[in-house]
């Protein structure tokens, strides 16, 4: 593996993910929600987050491709849609990272056509520097990070390193 630097430790991730779950537990107490995980990057985050959730949830998975060679392509493809009706449901979209915001904007426009009661966005990492006009800000954010390419804890670097238990960046 190339030279990497740890940006967010396993311990910090575990603590913050539990805090995010407590925020959701407070906001959704007595309700039921559909958690929609954006594959592949958010799989590790959602797996950890949902084990601290104490209200009723169902889980769905969508796959969007918006990046190639670590650069925004400006093109977003839906590889896999959800398989259930979310009309009238409270939806929480679980995402690994928001950068320009184009991916979550696409997701919002797509999910809104399915008439859910509400949609909130829970994002582990926020890289706000390159956010575009008209893009949403997350309702729940784990960490705000500097403008660097990060990977590990579900996020990839050229398809690899999703298995790292911490969030890393390349040394510069
Ligand atoms: P956005 O559409 O520009 O907000 O980019 C968000 C998507 O790009 C996320 O779903 C990630 O898949 C990917 N992405 C953005 N920044 C990074 C990064 O630093 N590491 C890994 N994936 C990233
Ligand atoms: Mg993604």
Question: Which overall shape is indicated by the principal axes computed on the Cα atoms?
Answer: globular
Seen as an oligomer or otherwise, the chain set is single chain
Care to count the β-strands?
Answer: 9
The ligands found in this model are:
inosinic acid, magnesium ion
Low-pLDDT residue intervals, each spanning 5 or more residues: none
Task: Please state the CA-atom Rg, rounded to the nearest Å.
Answer: 16 Å
Content of β-strand: 35-45%
Helix content: 10-25%
Physical arrangement of strands within the biggest beta sheet: 4-3-2-5-6-7
Mean pLDDT: 94
Number of helices: 3
Can you walk me through this structure?
- With 172 residues, the protein is α/β, with parallel strands linked by helices.
- It is 22% helix and 38% strand.
- It is built from 3 helices and 9 strands.
- It has helices at residues 10-27, 43-50, 102-112; strands at residues 4-8, 32-39, 56-68, 71-80, 90-98, 118-126, 140-144, 150-151, 167-170.
- The strands form 2 sheets. The chain has a 6-stranded mixed sheet, sandwiched between helices. A 3-stranded antiparallel sheet has the order 1-9-8.
- Helix 2 links the parallel strand 2 and strand 3.
- Helix 1 (10-27) packs across helix 2.
- The longest helix is centred in the N-terminal third of the chain and has 18 residues, at 10-27.
- It is globular.
- The mean pLDDT is 94.
- It binds inosinic acid and magnesium ion (MG).
- Inosinic acid binds at residues 38, 41, 66-67, 72, 95-103, 149-151, 155.
């Amino acid at each position: 593996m190339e030279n990497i630097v740890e940006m967010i430790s396993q311990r910090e991730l575990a603590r913050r993910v539990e805090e995010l779950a407590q925020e959701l537990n407070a906001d959704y107490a007595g309700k039921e929600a559909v958690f929609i995980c954006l594959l592949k990057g958010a799989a590790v985050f959602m797996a950890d987050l949902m084990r601290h959730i104490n209200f009723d949830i169902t889980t769905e998975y969508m796959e969007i491709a918006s990046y190639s060679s670590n650069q925004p392509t400006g093109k977003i493809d839906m590889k896999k849609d959800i398989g259930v009706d979310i009309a009238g449901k409270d939806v929480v979209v679980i995402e690994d990272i928001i950068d320009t915001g184009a991916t979550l904007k696409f997701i919002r426009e797509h999910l809104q056509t399915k008439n859910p009661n509400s949609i909130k966005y829970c994002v582990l990492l926020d890289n706000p520097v390159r956010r575009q006009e008209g893009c949403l800000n997350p309702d729940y954010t784990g960490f705000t990070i500097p403008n660097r390419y990060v990977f590990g804890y579900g996020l990839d670097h050229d398809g690899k390193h999703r298995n790292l238990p911490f969030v890393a960046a390349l040394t510069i």
